[in-house]
Amino acid sequence: MHLVQLLLPLYDNDGIALPQENFRRVRRDLTETFGGLTAFTRAPAEGLWKQVGEPANRDEIVIFEVMVPEIDEGWWRDYRRELERRFRQESIVIRAHTVQLL
Fold first, then answer.
1. Domain coverage including residue 11
2. Domain containing 86 — which CATH number?
């Protein structure tokens, strides 16, 4: 079993709030494809990253996650590219962890 997490920004690269419809659409996509999801949206998480010699960049993000029995890397790669277009981002992080259900 795998836990797939999508880290989605609340603002685009210009600092403009992204439309709520973007997030509703991701909810629909994941629920229809995988039968459900967990969305951590109440208190945005803070993402920080820094490149050498530059000030730190900051994002406010929400996390959506789904449980899947197998990882279809092609599907997730295509979906990430679609989300990058929809959310006007250079890169969106989608990560997967192998989990053991207890």
1. 2-98
2. 3.30.70.120
> Three-state SS for 12?
coil
* Helix, coil or strand: residue 60: strand
| Number of folded domains that form the chain | 1
Residue 6's CB is within 10 A of a number of other CB atoms, namely: 22
Distances (CA, A) of 98 to 71, 78, 101: 10, 21, 10
Report pLDDT digits (tens) over 16-75. 899 999 999 999 999 999 999 999 987 666 666 666 777 666 678 899 999 999 999 999
**Model pTM above 0.70:** yes
The whole-angstrom distance between residue 43's C-alpha and the CA centroid of its chain comes to: 15
Residue 51's Cβ-side half-sphere holds a number of Cα atoms within 13 Å equal to: 2
What one-character DSSP code corresponds to residue 10? S
